[in-house]
Amino acid sequence: MVDQVSGGGNIPSRAALQLSSGKARVDTASISGTAPRAAENAPAKAQISAAAREMSASPPVDSAKVQSLRSAIAEGRYQIDADSIASAMIRSELPGSTA
């Protein structure tokens, strides 16, 4: 069911109102002048595209570092400082802590 709704203030004068399962939804695509314009979204799309290209150009994981850690663990050279880890965990739980 589609009704025409008249509005005032910032509400467009005519909007398609769709009723479905007892819930109303305004069909903004049918409202003249309220749909996002491609020119307004262009800068955001360009930034997103640039970020996506940058991310896809580099591997998501530093493979050399992973291999280095694997070797150190396998050879028994990887040292774990339990006190530093415990201190960092406690600091992270304190109010106002950023890490």
UniProtKB/TrEMBL annotation:
Comp. bias regions, Low complexity: 35-46
InterPro entries: Anti-sigma-28_factor_FlgM_sf, FlgM, FlgM_C
Keyword Cell inner membrane belongs to the record: no
Region annotation (Disordered) ranges: 1-46
Domain of life: Bacteria
Positions of the Anti-sigma-28 factor FlgM C-terminal domain: 46-90
KW Transmembrane (keyword) present: no
One BP term from GO: bacterial-type flagellum organization
Protein keywords: Bacterial flagellum biogenesis, Cell projection, Cilium, Flagellum, Repressor, Transcription, Transcription regulation
Skewed-composition ranges (Gly residues): 1-10
Protein's job: Responsible for the coupling of flagellin expression to flagellar assembly by preventing expression of the flagellin genes when a component of the middle class of proteins is defective. It negatively regulates flagellar genes by inhibiting the activity of FliA by directly binding to FliA.
Family: Belongs to the FlgM family.
Name assigned to this protein: Negative regulator of flagellin synthesis
